[in-house]
Design a protein that fits this description.
By secondary structure, the chain is an all-alpha fold. It has three helices and no strands.
């Protein structure tokens, strides 16, 4: 009696590497769209100098406004000047 077990796995064995490759690509895609989205690495040219970094002028202005050192009018006036010099990110919004 000749069964399939004696003839080897057949052509379906080629699907397993493709399935694993699809799983790996799917996991990387999900991680890039969720967990890794906001992270910056040291390899980026603008790392640490972006408009939302701790030492940026826009962030310092936002902290001064939040602590009450300057009023809203002063904040918006200075923010417009800084916006012309440093620009905004694609998402917009202040510090």
């Amino acid at each position: 009696m000749n069964t399939l077990a004696h003839e080897g796995p057949g052509p379906w064995i080629l699907l397993f590497p493709l399935i694993w490759a699809a799983v790996v690509v799917g996991v990387i895609t999900v991680l890039r769209r969720t967990v890794w989205r906001g992270r910056r690495g040291p390899w980026r040219a603008d790392a640490g100098r972006g408009p939302h970094s701790e030492s940026s002028p826009i962030a310092m202005l936002g902290r001064r406004f939040a602590s009450g050192e300057i009023d809203e009018e002063e904040y918006w006036r200075r923010l417009s000047v800084l916006d012309e010099q440093f620009g905004r990110t694609a998402k917009g919004g202040a510090a």
